[in-house]
Every structure is written in C-alpha cells, then in structure tokens.
Amino acid sequence: MAEVDVKHRIFATTREAIVGRRLPPGTKLTEDIIADTFACKRGPVRWALARLGDEGLVTLVPHRGAFVAEPPLDEAKHLFGARRMLEGGIVRCLCDAPPPQGWRPLMACVDAEDRAHAEGDETAALRLSGDFHLIMAELTENPIAATMLRELVSRTVLAITVHQHRGSSGCRTHEHRRLIELLEAGDVEGAAREMDDHLRALEGGLDLSPRPRSGPSLRAVLGAALETARA
Amino acid sequence: MAEVDVKHRIFATTREAIVGRRLPPGTKLTEDIIADTFACKRGPVRWALARLGDEGLVTLVPHRGAFVAEPPLDEAKHLFGARRMLEGGIVRCLCDAPPPQGWRPLMACVDAEDRAHAEGDETAALRLSGDFHLIMAELTENPIAATMLRELVSRTVLAITVHQHRGSSGCRTHEHRRLIELLEAGDVEGAAREMDDHLRALEGGLDLSPRPRSGPSLRAVLGAALETARA
DNA sequence: TCTGCCCGGATTGTTAACAATACAACCTCG
DNA sequence: CGAGGTTGTATTGTTAACAATCCGGGCAGA
Q: Which of A112, A229, B46, B154 has the fewest Cβ atoms within 10 angstroms?
C-alpha cells in the first residue's frame, strides 16, 4: 500500500480530513499549499480537487479556487431523500440474502458508537454512525451500491455539520440496534420501515442555523494527517 | 447554451456518443484526435476523460490511454443489483408522493419506445428504455437520486451492449406500461415488485458471449456529433 | 519458421513558464 | 467621511516543450 499515485494520496487524505471534520465546511483549499504539503506540483492537486468536486465534497469556483462544500438545506434534504431510496433497497437486499458473515460487523460498529458517545467524542460518533450504514452496504457485496452510499454518507456528514443537528447525537444507536434485531429476525418490511424512520429522524434533526464556521490551518491539518498515515 | 466550457462540451458529447452506441465498447479514445476534433489542447480532453473514467464509462490504462469501457459480467450483475436497490426506492417514493405532472411523461416515453421498436431502431429503443427509468427518477424531484440513476443507466447500456442481450429487446415496453398502471393505482408493493421483476428480467437476458466489437472512426463519430449539436 | 531482442514512432504524463482573473488595500475626489 | 476607481499581489487557468512509456516491426539466431 505504499506506491499509490500521489494523486490518490492527496484525494484520499483530503477526503478523510473533510469527512473527519478536521477541515470545516467553507475552508479554502489552496492549490499551492496542498502541493507543497505533499511535496508535489499542482497537477496532482488539481486532479484530486476536481474529483472531490465531482463527489460534492468540495465546491469549485472558477478563478477563485476550491472550498470544502457547505451543502445548502435543500441539498441536505435531497441527500436524505436519496439515502432513503437507496438504503431501503439495501435493507431489503440484506433480508433477501443474509450475508455469510452474519451481522457481527454491524454489532461491533454499534458498540464502538456507544463507546464514542460515552467518551463524548461527537465527531467519532458521527463517523461511526456513518460507518454503520456503510457496513450494511458492504454486506450486500455489491461494490457499486457501496460506492454510491459512501458518497452519500460523506456528503451527509457535511450537511449535518453545516445545519447543526439539534440536541447532540448523530444516529441514536438504539435505532441501529433495533435495525439489527429486525434484520436478524428476517423482518423485511419492519427493517425497511425502521431504516426509513431512522433516516427521517436524522433529517428532522436538521435545523436552519447557518453555521459561522471558522477556517484555520489547512497546512497543519493535512500535514498531521500525513504524519499519522506514515506511522 | 453556447459558452459552456470546452471541457464540458467534450465530456457531454463523448458521453452521449458512448451511451448512443456510436462509440462501441473497446474503442480507443486518443487524446490528440479528440483535442483537434474540438479544436482545443489536450488539457480539457484529459479532464473529460478522467471524469468519464470516474463514471465507469471509460477505462483508463496508465501510459496506454482511454478506452470506452467493456464492463465484465460481474460488474453488469452488480449494476443491475444496485439498480434494483435504488429503483425500488424510487418507485416507493413516487407512490408515496405522486408527482404533480402526473404520469404523462412516462407514457409519452413508452409510446416513443414502441415507435422505435416498430421502426426496428434497436439503439433508439434501448436509449428510450433507459430514459423511461431516468424520467421516473426525475419525477421524484430529487436531483441526487436522478444523477445516481443516470450513471447507473449509462453503464447498464454498456453492459448490455457487451454481453449481447439475447433475443432483441431492451425493456419489454409492456412491463413499462404495467408499471405505470400500478403507479396510477397507487399500488406501492405491486409497483415495487414489478420494477424488481423487470430489472431481474433484464439481468436474466444477459449472456456470456464476449463481443468481438470493431472499433472505427472516432474522429468521424465525434465530429458528426459536433455538427448535429451545432445545428 | 519461430523466438527473442532492439529500435523507431507514437502517445501519454509531467513540468515550468506564462496569461488571466479576482481580491484587497490604497488613493483620490466629492 | 464615504464612494468610486486604481494599482498590486496572490491564485488559478492554460499552454508548449520535455520526459517516460508502450506498441509494432525488423532482424539475428536457433
């Protein structure tokens, strides 16, 4: 896993930094800074930014540059809508053909979620909450569906970050647990409905407060990400 | 609609040529040829090719170039699987909230499909068959879902082209009509099942014959596409 | 004839210099 | 004191030249 192209390293680290909320929405992503952070020329950087733009994690303004996206409220709603459509299908697919590994990976994830909540690590909790949904997608063994959901989940993280989810939580973990129970029971309709309700609940938690996010230290954050990746 | 960036024009026309099957799977997409077809430098071309690569319509081989993709059989199956997951959700969403325009657009599309079949225009029929599904996605008024499905449908066209669909048809139009009926009746489960069956039928029509496609005249085909676009 | 090798041509990948644009600070004028 | 224009600087966008790589054909040798 060493000799991956620089382009992909930039793409992956930056993406990771964004969904990990170390680069808050609105942060300017300056080509030069990224370029010499990764000790490369601007070419690979532009490639990565373009791709992040495609995925909706970054907004590219002509002649102005790239900024980590701040999805407007409509987009947030559409995101949840699309997730309901897709994840409903995922749930049904899983009931139809239960994965050979069983539901163990899901349970492990919820446990981790609970731990994060217990430790008060909001960001980790949100991340794990997303992972839960992602793992479900991966259990279908359909890489295309998994990729689509990965994109949706990443953007959802941004949307939630911008439109301050009220109260605190990401997914209530007990809804996740309930989902697992229904899956175990093979209750297709119940599981599908639970997923739908769950996503609706998340969407309902959106608020219309426009976050006045601050935008610091791109270089530091990306550099740190690199360090930990090296280790 | 004139001053769109050259990048996007290249992207759009090439994409169109691929899903319109004027550029058969396997065709080499040479940067220089595209570049002077569009009277530009290689920069925009590379951008467009990279994007088409992301979407799975083009395969990029390092130091070899870009080729219109030939999705292997597994990928084809995954494509249909993902479509079942997503389109099931779309159907349910439409039943839940019937579109203000009604089902007119869908009916118009099926009519066009029938005409194409009557005229023996296989390619147009396949295209319209895809459009039918796309229109459904658009009726949900969820641009994100629509975009996702657009990608899936395009790749499906390639998959079908490669793995020679037996008999002839793309979608049997009567299945499309039946779907409309069920939607009109507001029969959620019926419509969802019909969609699922429909997609399964399409997938079942895949065959394992590796097409020995010919690969001609990139320049001509793209040039022609430009002409008609200009007119 | 077939195999292996090397070379020429063509194509992709990268880079460094240049052009274009936008933002910010300043400066003038009413 | 404020509005409007102007210049300077920083950043992005583009291009042309260069480097790296791959494919095909020719050639020598078994």
A: A229
If you average pLDDT over residues B204-213, what whole number do you get? 66
Report chain C positions within 7 A of protein CB atoms: 11-16, 20-23
Q: Which residues of A touch B81 (CB under 8 A)?
A: 93, 140, 142, 144-145
Contact residues on chain B for A50, CB-CB shorter than 8 A: 47, 50-51
Q: Which one is the CATH code of A6-69+213-230: 3.20.20.10, 1.10.10.10, 3.40.630.40, 3.40.50.80? A: 1.10.10.10
Q: Tell me the pLDDT band of B215, cut-offs 50, 70 and 90.
A: very low
Each domain of chain B, given as residue ranges in start order, spans: 6-70+213-230, 73-204
User: What one-character-per-residue DSSP string does B158-198 give?
Assistant: HHHHHTT-SSS-SS-HHHHHHHHHHHHHT-HHHHHHHHHHH
Comparing A196-210, A212-226, B191-205, the range with the smallest average pLDDT is A212-226
H-helix or E-strand containing A183? Answer: helix A173-185
The Cα B180–Cα B191 span in angstroms is 8
What Å value separates CA B26 and C1' C3?
A: 30
**Cα A129 to Cα A110: distance, rounded to the nearest angstrom:** 8
Tell me which CATH homologous superfamily contains domain B73-204: GntR ligand-binding domain-like (1.20.120.530)
- Give the one of B81, B85, B142 whose C-beta lies nearest to A81's C-beta: B142
Cross-strand bridge partners of residue B66: B29, B60
Summarised one tens digit per residue, pLDDT across range A131-141 is: 999 999 999 99
User: Taking residues A22-50, what's their average pLDDT?
Assistant: 96
Confidence at residue B207, expressed as pLDDT on a 0 to 100 scale: 78
Residue A65 CA and nucleotide C25 C1' are separated, in Å, by: 21
Find the CB nearest B85 among A51, A81, A86.
A86
Is some CB atom of chain A closer than 8 A to the CB atom of B139? Answer: no
Q: Name the closest nucleotide to B32, judged by C1' and CA.
A: C11
What mean pLDDT comes out for the span B19-31?
A: 96
Q: How far apart are CA A55 and CA B34, in angstroms?
A: 26
